[in-house]
Amino acid sequence: MKEFDSKQQRAFLQFVTGAPRLPPGGLASLSPKLTIVRKSCSVWVDTNLPSVMTCANYLKLPPYSSKEKMKEKLLYAIMEGQGSFHLS
């Protein structure tokens, strides 16, 4: 997260929580708390994208082969997924 610029950080928050900004008190005040877990996936791990459950602030990350691959796939997911799902 610290390597992301402010636009990417906001997109990450929207991707994981469904909210455009943090509540007063920041990440520590998220309810439910942000949870990151390992995602089970196919043999070709580096082709899988991360997924989320916004209602639970739950991020599922595949065990990528490198930090760079994780950043690439996470940025792709958060930037391309913007605006594709909204609560009404």
UniProtKB/TrEMBL annotation:
Catalytic residues (UniProt): C55
Single Gene Ontology MF annotation: ubiquitin protein ligase activity
Domain HECT: 1-88
Gene Ontology biological-process entries: proteasome-mediated ubiquitin-dependent protein catabolic process; protein polyubiquitination
SUPFAM superfamilies per the UniProt record, alphabetical: Hect, E3 ligase catalytic domain (SSF56204)
Pfam families on file: HECT
Keyword Mitochondrion: no
Keyword list, A-Z: Transferase, Ubl conjugation pathway
Signal peptide: none
PANTHER family recorded: E3 UBIQUITIN-PROTEIN LIGASE TRIP12 (PTHR45670), E3 UBIQUITIN-PROTEIN LIGASE UPL4 (PTHR45670:SF10)
Protein name: HECT domain-containing protein
Species annotation: Solanum commersonii (Commerson's wild potato)
